[in-house]
Write a structure and sequence with these properties.
Largest sheet: 4 strands, antiparallel
Strand content: 25-35%
Low-confidence stretches: 9-15
Number of strands: 7
Mean pLDDT: 78
Strand order of the largest sheet: 1-2-3-4
Order of helices and strands: HEEEEEEE
């Protein structure tokens, strides 16, 4: 009997721990990205932390696709030396941005 009571107590404690752990987890926040873009978007990639979007758009001055970065600033920033870019993707840590251009895999930063 004592063993059965101990098992019930252990089970109840374990169940209470699971509920407490589950209730402490923070709820996911929904974020929205809104920007007026001066070009048609061809490809895009969201950084792992969700703070930056890499966008491939046509640059009139260079007459080719280039990468633009949009974050918390109201205006985008053109990423240098990304002419002909397509299919951008972020590294898992978000510190580097990969893309394809001229038939090669390239890295920005």
């Amino acid at each position: 009997m004592a063993a059965m009571a101990a098992m019930r107590g252990l089970g109840a404690g374990l169940l209470a721990g699971v509920f407490a752990w589950h209730s402490r987890r923070s709820a996911l926040q929904t974020s929205y990205f809104l920007a007026v873009l001066p070009f048609t978007v061809h490809d895009m990639a969201l950084s792992p932390n969700g703070h930056t979007v890499a966008v491939v758009g046509f640059s009139e001055s260079e007459r080719t696709n280039v990468l633009w970065l949009y974050g918390w600033r109201p205006r985008g920033e053109k990423a240098g030396e990304t002419e002909g870019a397509s299919s951008p993707f972020w590294s898992p840590d978000g510190k580097a941005l990969g893309f394809f251009a001229a038939g090669k895999l390239k890295k920005w930063k």
